[in-house]
């Protein structure tokens, strides 16, 4: 049976400024946490930018955005998810006045998108906290960041109020529990970071997100504001009730963030967790009301894999390549980076979110990271025969269609890394997600030329048929 997607379904792709823009020190841009992690978000932190950090140049979208957006338009994108680099607008993060050159750059990007009828979907903070805010204030552990963030979002909301409708406040906000420096700019080493300080930082981000929603609606009531979380369905390893409870507790660590964004209050299960772990969250006057009165319009999420969990996880093989922990599922195959491939997990995630919240859902990251081989075809064109990516995406999109048949309200789908970019977790180029091959290698060599992969034409057909070509 043909999968039917809504007529206004937003098909597109997704990227992040820190992984593809490059131009890290151009036109007044300040440093971000990404500029000192040359081995990826879980690697060592350097004193400053180093030559081996591929993110400094990325794929040079900063100078090639017209070429890239034209390719997105050729595929038929209805929406394009990107992020604004906070340190392009406020180089240190705590200035009172913005950097006009940074604002002007995004004006050009959004204007170029609108030229082709592509709707921007903009993440306000995507793993690129200004480095100064990390060094001077220890990132989101410090409540002062709320004010700096408010100044930043008010600036960009005002500037782009007629150019951007869809906004996400923080990328994968629940990742701060597992990657405190990359996600929250927290310099304290993870092994020394107390649960008290970590969850206080979480509170600051949640308050800042609610404040951003409030500011957004004041500037343009038509803005649509979403939260963005990692979706990772967690299966019990066995029917043993203890394993089922372990899986439930693991999932609640993720639900915490969407629960507060959507329902506007801390759930009772986390209050017990706080009591059991001697955590006391400091609320300032007005925090409770701010959270309650400024909930999100929609829920967006990334989905790459599911995991399993057990009461005694040490008895099993740990999942590879997964920042959220968990156990490898023996029933699933895995990618070259050990990420388990589970299309039905996306179906489960969509239904679980919708059953829980009855809010519109937006899949803003999904894709397969793989080693691609650039070849010359029979017509003399350079391309990649990435049938493995086509199979992965087809199978996941079929499951999106199944969820839609169930009545789940899905706004759109933006494939992650629609053009090859630098991996966030490993800072590699060889881990490629795109429909467009970028000639750049792990050693930094390459021409940066763009080439259409086989999947480019496949996705173009999927969009043109509104999903009817899926098998």
Can you offer a commentary on this structure?
By secondary structure, this protein is of the alpha/beta class. It has a single domain (10-464), classed as Glycosidases (TIM Barrel), CATH 3.20.20. The chain has 14 helices and 14 strands. The protein has an eight-stranded parallel beta barrel with strand order 1-2-3-4-5-7-9-12, surrounded by five helices. The chain has a two-stranded parallel ribbon with strand order 6-8. A two-stranded antiparallel ribbon has the order 10-11. A hairpin with a 5-residue loop joins strand 10 (375-376) and strand 11 (382-383). It is globular, with a radius of gyration of 21 Å. The relative contact order is 0.14. One of its GO terms (cellular component) is cytosol. It comes from Desemzia incerta. GO terms for molecular function: beta-glucosidase activity. The active site is at 365 (nucleophile). It holds the Pfam family Glyco_hydro_1.
List keywords for this structure.
471 residues, alpha/beta, TIM Barrel, eight-stranded parallel barrel, two-stranded parallel sheet, 14 strands, 37% helix, 13% strand, beta-glucosidase activity, GH, GH_1_N_CS, glycosidase, 6-phospho-beta-glucosidase
Q: Termini separation (Å)? A: 9 Å
Note the quaternary state here. Answer: single chain
Total strand count, please? 14
Q: Major sheet: order of its strands?
A: 1-2-3-4-5-7-9-12
Q: What general form does the structure show?
A: globular
CATH topology name: TIM Barrel
Global structural class: alpha/beta
* Biggest beta-sheet profile: 8 strands, parallel, barrel
Q: How many domains make up the coordinates?
A: 1
Helix content: 25-40%
Number of helices: 14
> Which CATH class?
Alpha Beta
């Amino acid at each position: 049976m043909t999968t039917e997607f809504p007529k206004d379904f937003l098909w597109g792709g997704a990227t992040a400024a820190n992984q593809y823009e490059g131009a890290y020190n151009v036109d007044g841009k300040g440093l971000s946490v990404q500029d000192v992690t040359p081995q990826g978000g879980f690697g060592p932190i350097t004193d400053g930018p180093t030559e081996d950090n591929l993110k400094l140049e990325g794929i040079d979208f900063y100078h090639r955005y017209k070429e890239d957006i034209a390719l997105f338009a050729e595929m038929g994108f209805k929406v394009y998810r990107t992020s604004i680099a906070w340190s392009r607008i406020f180089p240190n993060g705590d200035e009172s006045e913005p950097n006009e050159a940074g604002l002007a750059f995004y004006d050009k990007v959004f204007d170029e998108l609108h030229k082709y009828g592509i709707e921007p979907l903009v993440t306000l903070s995507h793993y690129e906290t200004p480095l100064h805010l990390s060094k001077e204030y220890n990132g989101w552990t410090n409540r002062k960041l709320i004010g700096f963030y408010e100044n930043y979002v008010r600036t960009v909301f005002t500037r782009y109020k007629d150019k951007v409708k869809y906004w996400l406040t923080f990328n994968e906000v629940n990742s701060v529990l597992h990657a405190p420096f990359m996600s929250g700019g927290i310099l304290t080493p993870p092994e020394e970071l107390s649960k008290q300080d970590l969850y206080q930082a979480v509170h600051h981000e949640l308050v800042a997100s609610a404040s951003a929603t409030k500011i957004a609606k004041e500037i343009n009531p038509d803005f649509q504001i979403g939260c963005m979380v990692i979706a990772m369905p967690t299966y019990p390893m066995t029917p043993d009730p203890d394993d089922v409870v372990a899986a439930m507790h693991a999932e609640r660590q993720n639900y915490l963030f969407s629960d507060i964004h959507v329902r506007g209050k801390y759930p009772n299960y986390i209050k017990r967790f706080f009591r059991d772990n001697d955590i006391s969250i400091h609320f300032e006057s007005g925090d409770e009301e701010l959270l309650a009165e400024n909930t999100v319009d929609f829920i967006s999420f990334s989905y790459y894999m599911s995991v399993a969990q057990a009461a005694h996880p040490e008895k099993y093989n740990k999942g590879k390549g997964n920042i959220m922990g968990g156990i490898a599922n023996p029933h699933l195959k895995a990618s070259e980076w050990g990420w388990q491939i589970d299309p039905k997990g996306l179906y489960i995630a969509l239904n679980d979110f919708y059953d829980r919240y009855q809010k519109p859902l937006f899949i803003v990251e999904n894709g397969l990271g793989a080693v691609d081989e650039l070849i010359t075809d029979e017509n003399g064109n350079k391309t990649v025969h990435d049938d493995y990516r086509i199979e992965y995406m087809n199978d996941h999109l079929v499951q999106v269609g199944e969820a839609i048949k169930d009545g789940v309200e899905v706004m759109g789908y933006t494939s992650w890394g629609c053009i090859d970019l630098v991996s966030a977790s490993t800072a590699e180029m060889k881990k490629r997600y795109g429909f467009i091959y970028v000639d750049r290698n792990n050693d930094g060599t390459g021409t940066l030329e763009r080439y259409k992969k086989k999947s480019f034409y496949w996705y173009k057909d999927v969009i043109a048929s509104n999903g009817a070509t899926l098998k």
